Amino acid sequence: MTAQNSTPARPDPTTPPPDSSLVLGAMTFGTRIDEETSFALLDRFVERGGTWIDTADCYAFWLDPAGRGGASERVIGRWLAARPGMRDRVRIATKVGAEPLWAGSWPEHRSGLSRRAIHDAFAGSLARLGIESVDLLWLHQEDRTVPIEESVDAMAELAADGRVRRVGASNHPAWRVERARAHALATGAMPIDALQLSATALRPRPGTQPEGNVHPFGVLGAEQVDLAREERLEVWAYSPLLGGAYDDPAKPIDPVFDHPGTERRLAALDEVARRTGARRGQVVLAHLVSQGIRPILGGSRPYQLEEALDGVSLVLDEEAREILDAAL
């Protein structure tokens, strides 16, 4: 992104992004994943052409003994400090709005998306990351106690001086994103140009949420897909591999996906996996990329990173895409 008053170039969601499409999710860096392993994953990600690293100011408060976030950003900050020149090779995305006000207070009492909260949270993120700007700042989850216009104006202030290059919305309903975009465009501010939601090959039953997803609008739905296509917004997908359940028999698929459509979708994944010699999860990633969606990997082991990078590099031929499109 450039100046606040210019119209940003918007990515086309119908074509894969030009750089490596995989995003490295750093949610449990510094908590479940120790610093040595985190550094190794980050190093290998960049070695293989990875660009985007995704974190949040609240990661991972539920795993931290003190019940507060910040560990992930601190690990990334120390990694950047230990790798001179690395900041020029990667893009950093972080989020604000979901940090508990005190240990055990989430979700009733969290930082939220008021102007003051956004500015304070972002200042903390920059300090932990040890950088002067981020490439993408997400509104982490909606805050209906604050007019969305106030949140947009706060993000615009951060973008105006170059500290934020792009803005996005995670776990927001489509109508609220469009209201935010309309206000930004009307005031000459930088509009939201990216959505981050849970998305995978399987679909939960209507009225249900996948395990661990506590956001009422956290699953990519038809309205968000339609908004993204019409307005050419980039889509990022978290939890694309269902925690490894596509390929690990020891990890059962969440019961919210237990319905007739799932059997048809799994059969299509299996057929394409046989045709390509790939694993089922890699086919899921390749299909997301073929739709212009950036999958986020939250894996904690090197082999998971290697398999995911191979998955997003898998080129599906026309017949394979037709099989998947018909079933998914």
UniProtKB/TrEMBL annotation:
Pfam families: Aldo_ket_red (PF00248). It comes from the Bacteria. Residues 22-327 form the NADP-dependent oxidoreductase domain. Residues 10-19 have a biased composition (Pro residues). GO terms for cellular component: cytosol. Residues 1-21 are annotated as: Disordered. This is Oxidoreductase. It comes from Brachybacterium phenoliresistens. The lineage of its organism: Bacteria, Bacillati, Actinomycetota, Actinomycetes, Micrococcales.
